[in-house]
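Because discrete structure vocabularies remain unfamiliar, we first show an illustrative case, written as a sequence plus integers encoding its fold.
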Amino acid sequence: MPFETIAAQLAGIRQACGAFVRLDTAQGQPLAVFERGTLARDLPGPATLARAVLQHERNPV
């Protein structure tokens, strides 16, 4: 996957959720905590990351 694609995905997360704050866990699942919400997903690869971002943008935390 090109770096530009990954950078665009990360920019989408920042626009939707604000700046990254910390990594955490809840019920054994990784959480990415941001200024305006969290992403709680199993993120094994960039395609899953893109789906998590799109889902968050449709259903903000």
About this structure: The chain has one domain: 3-58.
